[in-house]
Write a structure and sequence with these properties.
Strand content: over 45%
Radius of gyration: 18 Å
Mean pLDDT: 84
Distance between the termini: 53 Å
Shape: elongated
Number of helices: 0
């Protein structure tokens, strides 16, 4: 038996992404709904060593999730519902040790110049606590 305790942050997403070219219509590019999909690709965003005030930290905001590494689109829209939680390993067994933290992100991008994208108008963007309905179209 060991006294070693380890922590791990977990996140899953419910996500849709659409793309379009100038003058075209929105096309569904990625549908990661039903079931929830893992979104915990790295641990570089986790500080799992308890601080002086016994806190651990996870810092990872939403990013653009698309299947195209070399985009062929001019505009992108994505909506995500996310849930995060913490697990603890005690004596070799993992347990969920927190409630789910539910949050959402809605992001629209447009061309900034030939090499970069930027956010579209601010009233299209959303980031906050709780879930929203992930729509069937942007």
């Amino acid at each position: 038996m060991t006294n070693e305790v380890q922590f791990d942050f977990k996140r899953e997403k419910w996500h849709r992404c659409w793309e379009k070219v100038v003058g075209g219509s929105w096309q569904l590019a990625l549908d990661e709904t039903n079931p929830w999909r893992g979104d915990d690709l790295t641990e570089l965003d986790e500080d799992k060593t308890p601080s002086n005030n016994d806190h651990i930290y996870h810092i990872d905001g939403p990013g653009i999730v698309t299947k195209n590494r070399e985009p062929t689109w001019d505009y992108l829209a994505q909506t995500l519902d996310l849930k995060e939680w913490v697990k603890v390993q005690i004596d070799g067994t993992w347990y969920q040790c927190s409630d789910y933290y539910k949050w959402h992100s809605k992001c629209y991008t447009k061309p900034k110049d030939a090499n970069y994208m930027t956010r579209d108008v601010l009233n299209l963007q959303q980031l906050g606590g709780g879930w929203i309905t992930v729509p069937n179209s942007p």
